[in-house]
Amino acid sequence: MPETRTYHGQCHCGAVRYTATTDLGSLMDCNCSRCRRLGWVMQSVPAENFELLSGADKLVDYRFNTKAIQHLFCRDCGIESFARGQDREGRELVMINVNALDDAPAVDRATIMHWNGAEA
Ligand SMILES: [Zn+2]
Description:
Strand 7 (70-74) and strand 8 (82-86) form a beta hairpin. The protein has a five-stranded antiparallel beta sheet with strand order 4-9-8-7-6, with no helix packed on it. Helices cover 5% and strands 40% of the residues. It is globular. The protein has one helix and ten strands; from the N terminus they run E-E-E-H-E-E-E-E-E-E-E. By secondary structure, it is mainly beta. The protein has a single domain, classed as Metal Binding Protein, Guanine Nucleotide Exchange Factor, Chain A. The protein has one helix at residues 33-38, and strands at residues 5-10, 17-22, 28-30, 42-46, 50-54, 59-62, 70-74, 82-86, 92-97, 113-115. Bound molecules: zinc ion. Zinc ion binds at residues 11-13, 15-16, 74, 76-77, 79. InterPro entries: CENP-V-like (IPR052355), CENP-V/GFA (IPR006913), Mss4-like_sf (IPR011057).
């Protein structure tokens, strides 16, 4: 298991910046109608392990289907660097876009779990 540390993420223009503390141990992609277009790799982190440093005023909240997940993208550059949601027990969590981290190790695609969001 990779070690737990604090990663820095940001949108493309840098207005939206955050830190997330995680081991990047459960990477996931998804084939739902949005994720398929986005092509992102996600890591779920408990909300308390996530801190938005800047750009709250730049975030646009896009929701679809059950409207349960806040897909937050930067209004200036269009990049969704994270999303907010809840787990099955109702705990707040953040899905960080691993491709938006400044300093993440290279993603080994063979280790990614494939979520079948298209049929969930
Ligand atoms: Zn931006």
